[in-house]
C-alpha cells in the first residue's frame, strides 16, 4: 500500500532539470498545489540561471496554535539547518506566501550524492517547515529531555484552520488527531478505516509499533484543549510515540508520517470508495483483509525506513 513520500516529485524534477540545463538559462515560472493545502511557486530568470525563488503558502493556522510571521515554531531554525548557504530566507516573503527562499544552485556541494541529497531536502520543504515543531518535541523525546514545565497539551497546524495535538512527557509523546471530512460517504469510510487501526496494531510483527486507539469523542488527554478545536465527525485517533520510534533515522520518517496522517487517510478513503463502486461485494472483504494500509503505516512508524 502507498506511503506518501516527503519530497515533492514535481519540485525535485524542477530543481534537477534546472541544474542539468544551467547553460540554457531558460525562464521559469511555475505554480502548483499539493495535498490540497500547500501552494508552491518557483521562479527563475535567464539573467541569473543559478538563482531560483521558491515560495510556499502554508495552511492558515487555527487560533489555538502558535506561529511566528505565518511560520510554525522552529521553522526558521529548521530551514537554516537543512539548507545552509544554499538557501536565503527573504523577509518579507512574496505576496500571498508564507515563505520565500532564494536558492543559489552554485553553492550546492560538488559531490553528486551529497548534491542530490540537498535537492531532495529542498523538495521536502513542506516537511522541514510544517514538521519543525513536531520534530523538536520528538527529538526531545529521543534524548529524554522534555521539559517538565511544558504545556500539557500542544496544538500544531495539521490542515487549514485545523490542529492536531501533542501531549509530551519524558517517556512518551501522545499524538491525537481530530478527524474531519466533508462528504458523508467519506465520513463513513474514514470512520471504518480509522477504527481498523486498533485491530491492525494487534497484527503479528507490530508488537513494537506505536500503540493506537480510536474514540468517537475527545480522549481524556485533550482535557486542556480549547473546545472549539475538538470538533470531529470521524472520531479521534491517538498514537503513543516512545523513544524507540524516533531514534536515529527513524525521526524523519515518523515526523513525516504523523504530519501527513490526514492526507494518508484521505487517499485510502478515496481508494475504498473506488473499490466499493467498482468491485463486487464478494471480493471487497478479501481486498481489504488484513488491514494492509493500517499495517503499512504502523510498520513505517515502527521501523522508520519502509518505502
Automatic annotation (TrEMBL):
The keyword RNA-binding does not apply. Functions as actin-binding component of the Arp2/3 complex which is involved in regulation of actin polymerization and together with an activating nucleation-promoting factor (NPF) mediates the formation of branched actin networks. Component of the Arp2/3 complex. Belongs to the ARPC2 family. It comes from the Eukaryota. Keywords: Actin-binding, Cytoplasm, Cytoskeleton. Gene3D superfamilies: 3.30.1460.20. The keyword Lyase does not apply. It is found in: Cytoplasm, Cytoskeleton. Signal peptide: none annotated. This is Arp2/3 complex 34 kDa subunit. Its main location: cytoplasm. InterPro entries: ARPC2, ARPC2/4.
Amino acid at each position: 500500500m502507498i506511503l506518501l513520500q516527503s519530497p515533492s516529485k514535481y519540485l525535485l524534477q524542477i530543481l534537477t532539470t534546472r541544474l542539468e540545463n544551467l547553460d540554457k538559462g531558460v525562464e521559469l515560472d511555475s505554480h502548483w498545489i499539493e495535498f490540497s493545502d500547500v501552494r508552491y511557486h518557483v521562479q527563475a530568470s535567464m539573467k541569473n540561471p543559478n538563482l531560483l525563488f521558491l515560495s510556499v503558502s502554508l495552511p492558515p493556522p487555527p487560533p489555538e496554535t502558535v506561529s511566528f510571521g505565518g511560520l510554525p515554531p522552529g521553522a526558521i531554525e529548521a530551514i537554516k539547518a537543512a539548507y545552509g548557504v544554499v538557501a536565503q530566507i527573504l523577509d518579507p516573503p512574496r505576496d500571498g506566501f508564507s515563505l520565500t527562499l532564494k536558492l543559489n544552485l552554485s553553492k550546492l556541494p560538488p559531490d553528486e550524492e551529497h548534491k542530490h541529497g540537498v535537492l531532495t531536502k529542498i523538495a521536502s520543504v513542506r516537511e522541514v517547515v510544517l514538521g519543525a515543531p513536531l520534530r523538536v518535541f520528538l527529538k526531545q523525546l529521543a534524548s529524554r529531555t522534555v521539559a517538565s514545565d511544558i504545556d500539557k497539551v500542544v496544538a500544531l497546524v495539521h490542515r487549514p484552520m485545523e490542529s492536531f495535538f501533542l501531549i509530551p512527557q519524558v517517556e512518551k509523546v501522545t499524538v491525537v488527531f481530530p478527524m474531519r471530512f466533508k462528504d458523508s460517504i467519506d465520513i463513513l469510510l474514514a470512520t471504518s478505516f480509522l477504527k481498523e487501526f486498533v485491530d491492525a496494531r494487534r497484527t503479528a510483527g507490530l508488537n513494537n509499533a506505536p500503540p493506537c486507539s480510536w474514540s468517537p469523542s475527545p480522549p481524556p488527554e485533550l482535557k486542556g484543549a480549547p473546545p472549539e478545536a475538538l470538533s470531529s465527525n470521524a472520531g479521534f485517533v491517538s498514537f503513543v510515540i516512545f523513544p524507540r520510534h524516533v531514534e536515529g533515522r527513524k525521526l524523519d520518517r515518523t515526523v513525516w508520517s504523523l504530519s501527513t496522517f490526514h492526507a494518508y487517510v484521505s487517499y485510502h478513503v478515496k481508494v475504498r470508495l473506488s473499490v466499493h463502486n467498482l468491485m463486487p461485494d464478494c471480493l471487497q472483504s478479501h481486498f481489504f483483509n488484513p488491514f494492509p494500509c493500517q499495517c503499512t503505516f504502523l510498520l513505517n512508524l515502527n521501523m522508520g525506513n519502509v518505502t
